[in-house]
Design a protein that fits this description.
Mean pLDDT: 96
CATH topology: Translation Initiation Factor IF3
CATH class: Alpha Beta
Helix content: 40-55%
Number of strands: 4
Radius of gyration: 10 Å
Number of domains: 1
Order of helices and strands: EHEHEE
Oligomer: single chain
CATH architecture: 2-Layer Sandwich
Largest sheet: 4 strands, mixed
Strand content: 25-35%
Distance between the termini: 21 Å
Length: 66
């Protein structure tokens, strides 16, 4: 689970991309504000196979389909 309370949009995107490039198949990201949610959504639009599976408010579950 990624939990970066004070992370800005770009910093969180970089962290998600680093996990994506490292080959992680799924990530759970704890979100604290709309800026962080937007970062995850943008990653799902840009990264191939990276999809949001579940959004339960304070956490977003993602998975990479390849």
């Amino acid at each position: 689970m990624l939990d970066y309370k004070d992370a800005k949009k770009v910093a969180l995107m970089r962290k998600i991309i680093s996990y994506y490039l490292a080959g992680y198949d799924s990530l759970t990201v704890k979100t604290y504000n709309d800026e962080q949610r937007e970062a995850i959504t943008l990653c799902s639009e840009v990264l191939i196979g990276f999809e949001v599976l579940e959004d339960i408010g304070s956490e977003i579950q993602t998975e990479v389909f390849s």
